[in-house]
Write a structure and sequence with these properties.
The protein is mainly beta. Helix content is about 5%, strand content about 60%. It has a 22-stranded antiparallel barrel. Strand 26 and strand 27 (about 550-565) form a beta hairpin.
Length: about 625
């Protein structure tokens, strides 16, 4: 495989050397800039990785309080689980698992960032999906494929980077969304923004709730957020932000094994501060971040059983510092060097509330680990060909050191064609839970590791109105951590798994005229080892009409070969139809409505948790 990639790189170089240089180079892509593939804003046409952008416009038109539905619909190869109308929850019966190309976020193989800072539970190593709210996001950038050379552990399958809300022009703005609908669902958020000269600020909050489609499945959430940024000098800019969310959720259990009193009260917080510099030929940043969580969980009891005598309580946090600086050493060159320090810890215990042990606690884990890393990322453009290479040295206490390389090439060919080739390593360290918590714990676990090889083709036609692309990928991962049964002993977490995934992803967008637009994406993943929440086929297509006052969008999602369970193996296939409409009554007010599963299909994503049939929401949006 490595020999094949090298041969393809040489072929691209040969084709590029013969190309004329007078054609436009991916005209539409040149107008974009992304920061997730590398730390510094870059033209995505020059990156060997595939980076998708979900804009603020896309997020608002999704009309969802959670950011994940909009990302799931627009990104091929990415799928998130759900269990009801609203709210993902955690622990037993939870949803919100993010899978990219068959690698699972619940297994800490997909990294979620906010403004480039990792966001996951310090004990369990995975993101808390209910903390990812639409009201806080300016846009979302998604890297499909490994990004461990820049971001370290957990980025072996991909990265979802949420960019916080911004205001670029002087003035003040207030936005209020309120909606209600099926199953007692209520959604609301308020965002206040202002900018005067070099200072900008954003603040807001949201309140959302739903009874959901099953008894004892209520969900209520409150979120507050704030961000401030300002220029210190013409070259230096400072920023700070804060986000706090609390939600309560109930798990009714599966339909075959219902639960009573399975309740959760979860608080998650995140804060960061940093200073950026921009001198033209060199730019960089230093930032500090801290995120934390407090989880209170009653696992409930089944029919005929006794209420549990304890409550699971955990506190976790993750602190970190990042420093990077990029420089243009000569024409067509970009070198970025950086260093990261992360420290994550967790304290989990069972607190007894009844019986002889009432008032006492049993510690399950009380540990911390630190991660230290340095990396370099080099990019060189030669005419139409851009070559790139990156290397990261990453060390975690208790797990050793990982060397993480990445290589790639991007060619801008005639007729607005972009061709990309890449090969990169991804990895993830074992979590505190896997090493120290519960019966299968094994402190001697080694990091999971993968190599991903990818070829990507993209072309724009009709002056940028038509855009389409195809990606082919092959993932070879080993040392996958599995819980393995042992005769006469408790199961044990061991590095015993190998994972080989291969597939194809396609996406297209056609702006027919000023009013009509069609978007579609499709992914096929062939998995040698089944993975929960990773469908074999995923198709989403939508048609949207935008008029002087009206916006109407219809979307069709087809999912086939989705693993609801792997022991025993349960797969499902379903088709969903959704509709969104907005009517602008006045320049400052719009009426909005959305309907989901309008075909009223009966289906499950999480085994034993039937999803609601047709649901409807209606509300109002006010912009002042």
């Amino acid at each position: 495989m490595k020999t094949s990639v090298l041969s393809l790189l040489l072929l691209v170089g040969a084709v590029t050397a013969q190309s004329a240089t007078t054609d436009s180079i991916n005209t539409r892509l040149l107008n974009e800039a992304v920061v997730t593939g590398t730390r510094t804003p870059s033209n995505p046409a020059l990156l060997s990785q595939t980076v998708n952008v979900v804009t603020r416009h896309d997020i608002e038109r999704s009309m969802q309080p959670s950011i994940l539905p909009a990302v799931t619909q627009r990104i091929p190869g990415l799928f998130t689980t759900a269990r009801g109308v609203y709210g993902y929850g955690i622990s037993g019966g939870a949803a919100g698992n993010i899978a990219v190309r068959g690698l699972s976020g619940s297994s800490a193989q997909v990294m979620t960032l906010i403004d480039g800072h990792p966001q996951y539970s310090g004990i369990f190593g995975h993101p808390i999906s209910d903390a990812l709210q639409s009201a806080t996001a300016e846009r979302v950038e998604v890297v499909r494929g490994p990004a461990s050379s820049i971001y370290g552990s957990n980025a072996m399958g991909g990265v979802i980077n949420i960019i916080s809300r911004r205001m670029t022009a002087d003035g003040y703005r207030a936005t209020l969304n309120v909606a209600g609908g099926s199953y007692g669902t209520f959604e609301s958020d308020l965002t206040l923004q202002g900018r005067k000269g070099p200072i900008e600020a954003t603040a807001g909050g949201s309140f959302n709730r739903s009874d959901n489609n099953r008894r004892d499945m209520g969900f209520t959430q409150r979120t507050a957020f704030a961000r401030v940024a300002g220029d210190i000098t013409a070259r230096w800019r400072a920023h700070a932000d804060f986000n706090l969310t609390n939600f309560t959720a109930s798990n009714p259990g599966t339909t075959d094994n219902p639960l009573t009193d399975a309740d959760q009260n979860i608080t998650r917080g995140a804060a960061s501060a940093g200073i950026d510099n921009d001198y033209g030929s060199t730019r960089g940043a230093i930032s500090l971040f801290f995120n934390w969580g407090h989880h209170w969980i009653n696992d409930g009891y089944a029919a005929g059983a006794q209420p549990r005598a304890y409550r699971f309580i955990s506190d976790d946090n993750m602190a970190g510092a990042s420093l990077w600086q990029s420089a243009t050493l000569f024409e067509g060159n970009m070198l970025t060097v950086g260093a990261d320090w992360f420290r994550f810890s967790g304290h989990a215990r069972n607190k007894f509330v009844s019986g002889q042990s009432a008032g006492t606690s049993t510690t399950l884990v009380d540990k911390w680990h630190a991660e230290y890393a340095g990396y370099a990322d080099m990019r060189q453009t030669l005419g139409r060909l851009t070559l790139s290479a990156a290397l990261r040295a990453d060390h975690m206490t208790g797990s050793g050191t990982e060397w993480v390389p990445r290589f790639g090439a991007a060619a801008s060919l005639p007729r607005d064609i972009s061709l990309k080739l890449s090969a990169g390593k991804g990895f993830r360290y074992p979590t505190l839970r896997e090493m120290y918590m519960f019966g299968p714990a094994n402190p001697d676990l080694r990091p999971e590791s993968s190599w991903t090889y990818e070829v990507a083709f993209r072309q724009t036609r009709l002056d940028g109105d038509l855009d389409y692309g195809v990606n082919l990928f092959f993932i070879d991962a080993d040392n996958i951590i599995l819980t393995t049964p042992r005769e006469g002993a408790t199961p044990l977490n061991v590095n015993s798994g190998r994972l080989i995934n291969r597939g194809v992803e396609a996406e297209a967008s056609w702006r027919i005229d000023r009013s009509w637009r069609i978007d579609a994406n499709y992914s096929y993943v062939d998995m040698r080892r089944p993975v929960i929440a990773a469908p074999t086929h995923k198709l989403y297509t939508s048609a949207a009409f935008t008029g002087s006052r009206w916006f109407v969008s219809a979307g069709l999602q087809y999912i086939a070969g989705l693993y609801k369970s792997v022991s025993p193996i349960e797969r499902t296939t379903f088709t969903l139809l959704d509709l969104r409409a907005e009517y602008r009554v006045a320049p400052w007010m719009s009426l909005r409505a959305r309907g989901e599963n309008l075909l009223a299909r009966s289906y499950e994503i999480n085994a034993g948790f039937p999803m609601p049939r047709a649901t409807f929401m209606a509300g109002i949006k006010i912009d002042l």
